[in-house]
Amino acid sequence: MKYMIIGASIAAINAIEAIRRRDPHSPITVISEETDPPYSRPLISYWLAGVISDAEMLYRPRDFYQKHRVNLLVGKKAVHLNPATKTVWLDTGDALEYDTLLLACGGKNTVPPGLANVPYHTFYSWRDVREIAAKVREKGPGQHALVVGAGLVGMKAAESLRLLGVEVTVVDLADHILSSVLPQGPSKLLEALLCEDPKLHFYLGATATDVRADSGKITCRIMGMPMAFDHLVLAVGVRPNIDLCKGTPIETNKGVLVDERMQTSVPHHYAAGDLAEMRGGAGGRAGRAVTAILPSAASQGQVAGANMAGADAVLKHRTVFNSLSLFSHSLVTIGDTTEDTDSVSHVGSAGQHSQFFYRDGCLCGAILLNQPERSGIYRYLVEEQIELNTSCVPRAELMALPKEAWPDLVACGSV
């Protein structure tokens, strides 16, 4: 059996481990455009801010590929795929054959049109933030960066730049920050907290126009006002990298369509990570979705790798769970938090906010701003679809009990 993996993502690493647990000896070839050892992509903002070291960036030890007997082709790009002959062509012209294939090549940065002559940075890879760090070091004090995009990536980019002492302006077409995970109420509360920093600015429901490079500066207009910046960081989204599947029988939509075994429409061809699109991606409901978060990528890679090696593994549904620190504020989102559903909110002191979302009498999502306590039980209630009384938030004194007690409490109707 010859295994081929395109991409060296979190999904790929987990697939390699799953393969080797079942097949210690068959050849595995990994094709990667990146040249770094296995690293954790969500940590790039912390590396840029100087919070963590190179060693702390690593997702697995530097000798991971060697220990797992992987033929690693770094700095190489797969440019053509023929599933019928099970052949991949590289940008070098080399053709490689395989028996079973995993597509784990992640996503591609979305770059707005009109920036061909404008220097900009994306915020997706370790290489991206190394380039940003080098540019910040080149310039003196008083730097100002424009971050386009107020989603999770854009806000982490803004945070790391502020920690480097760079003034930051964030612009987004959405009318509130983190619009993909937060409704307007808690988003506006968080925005007000962030605006206590006099060198962090937001222009929402707006865009940057007439963007140009001019005498070492990047100039543009935002809401009609002329502005100048030292850096431009694009964080307007990442789309699944499905280029290799074009012109092949592998079915795609937004991403590569897969079943619960992570197999594509073509047998022996699998996909996992940011490019995989499967049923129940967000909340477990009918339909298809791309779930581009690390725990999902890891689970998908494990399932894909196991099945490539002859297992019959099925992906277990995972509730979408985001937990992050943003400018010293904690934010946890669980499940569906932007749906038009019944909800109960509570705004406490010190910028605290909790909001619980219900569908058909069950908790389907939760937002916890500056109060991460008991997030575990809320996740449990969402995943198990426990029927609750929607007229009130689950009682705090019950939430504080050990997890072992939760099923019994639910069974007797105490929650």
Taking the alpha carbons of the first and last residues, their distance comes to 52 Å
Helix content: 10-25%
Low-confidence stretches: 280-287, 395-401
**What best-fitting shape do the alpha-carbon axes yield?**
globular
Percent strand equals 25-35%
- The radius of gyration computed from the alpha-carbon positions, rounded to a whole number of angstroms, is 23 Å
Give the strand tally: 26
Strand line-up across the major sheet = 3-2-1-7-19
Overall pLDDT confidence: 89
Biggest sheet architecture: 5 strands, parallel
Category from helices, strands and their pairing: alpha/beta
Tally of alpha and pi helices: 11
What can you tell me about this protein's structure?
With 415 residues, this protein is α/β, with parallel strands linked by helices. 23% of the residues lie in helices and 29% in strands. The chain has 11 helices and 26 strands. The chain has helices at 10-22, 44-48, 54-57, 64-67, 126-138, 152-163, 184-194, 294-308, 375-384, 396-399, 406-411, and strands spanning 3-6, 28-32, 70-74, 78-82, 87-90, 95-97, 100-103, 107-109, 121-122, 144-148, 167-172, 200-204, 208-214, 217-222, 225-229, 231-234, 238-240, 256-257, 269-271, 276-279, 288-290, 321-326, 329-335, 342-347, 353-359, 362-369. A 5-stranded parallel beta sheet has the order 3-2-1-7-19. The chain has a 5-stranded parallel beta sheet with strand order 9-16-10-11-12, with helices on one face. A 5-stranded antiparallel beta sheet has the order 22-23-26-25-24, sandwiched between helices. β20 and β21 (288-290) form a beta hairpin. α1 (10-22) packs parallel to α8. The longest helix has 15 residues, at 294-308. It is globular. The model is unreliable at 280-287 and 395-401 (pLDDT under 50).
